[in-house]
Amino acid sequence: MLFSNTEDYEEFSKGIWRDNPVFVQVLGMCPMLAVTNSAVNAVAMGGATLFVLVGSSFLVSLLKGWIPKQVRISCFIIIIATFVTIADYTLLALIPTVHKELGAFIPLIVANCMILGRQEAFASKSTPRLAVMDALGMSSGFMVALLALGAVREIFGTGTLFGIELFGPAWEPWVIMILPPGGFLTLGLILLVFNWMSQRKAMFLERVAEAEGSSQ
Amino acid sequence: MDSLGGIFIGSLLINNFVLTYFLGICPFLGVSNNLLTSFRLGLATTFVMLVTALCAWVLNTYLLIYAPYLQLISYIVVIASTVQFIEMAIKKLSPALFRALGIFLPLITTNCSILGLAIFSFNRGYGFLEGMVYALGAGLGFTIAMVLLAGLREETELSDVPALIQGTAMNLIIAGILSMAFMGFAGLFSSTV
Question: Rounded distance, CA B28 to CA B22, Å?
Answer without folding.
Answer: 10
